[in-house]
Amino acid sequence: MSLTKLLREQQQRLDGVIELLEQERELLAAADIDGRQLAEVAELKQQRLQQLEATETLRRNVQQRLGYAEGAAGARQAAEDAGCLEAWESTMERTQKAHRLNTMNGQLVGLRMGQNKRLLEFIHEAAEKTTYGASGRVRAQPGRFNTSV
């Protein structure tokens, strides 16, 4: 398989990952998160990432077999020698975009987790402040006035 064809395949797979990351971002940014749909997107994203990894492994193996250095410098040189430097650069741009989207989605997840934690803490505090005695009345809380006097 030629390097140009491998790069095109990687670009298509990256485009699929980017599309899923954008869907994930929209779901995470929604006021009411659809957990089922988010799980479906996560599963599809995992499948596409595995396919992308398989293509990348093949590309790295070809690069190594042809005697190019490992890493980005060797990959760039291989693309330049094969006349597909533009395809390599486009693949790198897509990779960076996917990375940015994934980072942003991670931040959204962190924000949601923080909001949920604060909400649970508030509910926990509110539940502790409104305990009832055997008479059915709210018990006096330290620092609060007993209004049942």
From TrEMBL:
SUPFAM superfamilies: FlgN-like
Record keyword ATP-binding present: no
InterPro entries linked to this entry: FlgN-like, FlgN-like_sf
Keywords on record: Bacterial flagellum biogenesis
GO biological process, one term: bacterial-type flagellum assembly
Function: Required for the efficient initiation of filament assembly.
Annotated family: Belongs to the FlgN family.
Name recorded for this polypeptide: FlgN protein
Native species: Halomonas chromatireducens
